[in-house]
Amino acid sequence: MKPDWLDREEYPFESNYLQLDCGRMHYIDEGEGPVIVMVHGTPAWSFIYRNLIKLLRPRYRCVAMDMLGFGLSDKPDDFSYKPRAHAENFEKLMEHLQLKDITLVVHDFGAPIGLAYALNHPENVRSIVMLNTWTWSLSKHNTFSKASKYLVGPLGKFLHSKLNVSTGDLVKELFGDAENMPESIRGQYVNALGTPEQQVRSLACARELVGVSRWYEELWQKRKSIQDIPTLILWGERDRLVKIEALQTWKKFFHECYVIHFEDSGHFLQEENAEELAGYVSNFIKEERKKRELTC
């Protein structure tokens, strides 16, 4: 049953659930055709991809999950909520759906979670689309906004669990560069985070960001297995969280990499530039398919 706060006009999708040991994970599976799998970050959920899905589902099969603790998925008390655990759940979803030859779209924390699957199963990933993200430990990098420093500190945890700091203030800070976001849309992110206690648990992945994360380093050490996968990078240059140095790292890494800059946009391109993103993603998939047909 969908919650009362959900705007069904903005999010007009059929809900699907995968029962995991620790709770039910919600996902949407819309359209037919080549498969596009979208992985969200923090503090988002599949709602952030809604406009992309509406535009792409006439020609593509679009799959987007809500990580446990986010969106319409369960928010269990006894789940770790760390990136590695989210990645394990994503792999279970992919096994459940038996998806092949996918285009993997990753954003923010969705990259280490989604790319962990690609690193383990590169044969199933036909192409990658990246939006303002990273897949390595940032413990030594001074690239954090006030919001990220706030999230990772013990003060942030205390304020949310004990003093009931406004969820709206948290979302407003994290979406600070999406200045024109209507309050009705912002409310879909606020409500999806749940109670202050649930926020503390679900945002554990953010708090791990500046810690020494062995898992991030393990992923980065295995990166060569996806180095030859064609990749499209869509980058908002006004991002206040993930700085341009991350983009330069990706450009040097991938052997076949195309970069589109959005000079006037920030971290959440899906909210600011959905129509343009859909066009670039569709054209990218078509061009890569033509290349494969020519080589065959």
TrEMBL record:
GO terms for cellular component: membrane. Keywords: Hydrolase. Gene3D superfamilies: alpha/beta hydrolase. The keyword Hydrolase applies. The keyword Nucleotide-binding does not apply. Coiled coil: none annotated. It holds the Pfam family Abhydrolase_1. GO terms for molecular function: hydrolase activity. InterPro entries: AB_hydrolase_1, AB_hydrolase_fold, AB_hydrolase_sf, Epox_hydrolase-like. It comes from the Bacteria. Residues 34-274 form the AB hydrolase-1 domain. PANTHER family: CIS-3-ALKYL-4-ALKYLOXETAN-2-ONE DECARBOXYLASE, MONOACYLGLYCEROL LIPASE. This is Alpha/beta fold hydrolase.
